[in-house]
Amino acid sequence: MNKDLRKVVILLAHPNMKESQANKALIEAVSDIEGVAVFNLYDQQDAAFDVDEWSKIISDASALIYQFPFHWMAAPSLLKRWQDEVFTFLSKTPAVAGKPLTIVTTTGSEYEAYRSGGRNRFTTDELLRPYQVSAIHSGMSWQTPIVVYGMGTADAGKNIAEGANQYKQRIEMLIGSSNAGNNW
User: Fold this and answer.
1) CATH ID of 8-179, from 3.40.920.10, 3.30.1330.40, 3.20.20.300, 3.40.50.360
2) Residue ranges of the Flavodoxin-like fold domain (predicted)?
3) 133, 153, 170, 172: least surrounded by Cβ within 10 Å?
């Protein structure tokens, strides 16, 4: 698992990346940026998470990103397992304090479905609130999520391209911020 412990750590949690279009395109857009380390949790799904190793990885990072498809209004279960087994410990240490946490997610439905009164009744900000609370509780800096809507619509390709561009810009901002003395 030891990658060159770089500045921005992305925890990718997608149970079927081989068949993914959106999350595959998003991670491909940012994984080659210098200063980014991607850890696909599903590559390690059958092994126990090594808290000591993850402590080193996260301690050496300047920012953390959770990337996942929105499944039933949450992340796939392996990210929750990582949070339970690793983040619970890290949240009580200086390893995460002050670091930005960003969520990057994709939805099958269009933006309008995630509005008050829309088909899903709630905004994505409301549905992502547990991640925001865990960031705040652990002393992290919550960042505005990047949500790529409409993977099940005719606009999926356009939305993925726009999301990939936004994702690259966010990574560059996080890396630039860390090079500027951690002034986020």
Assistant:
1) 3.40.50.360
2) 7-170
3) 133
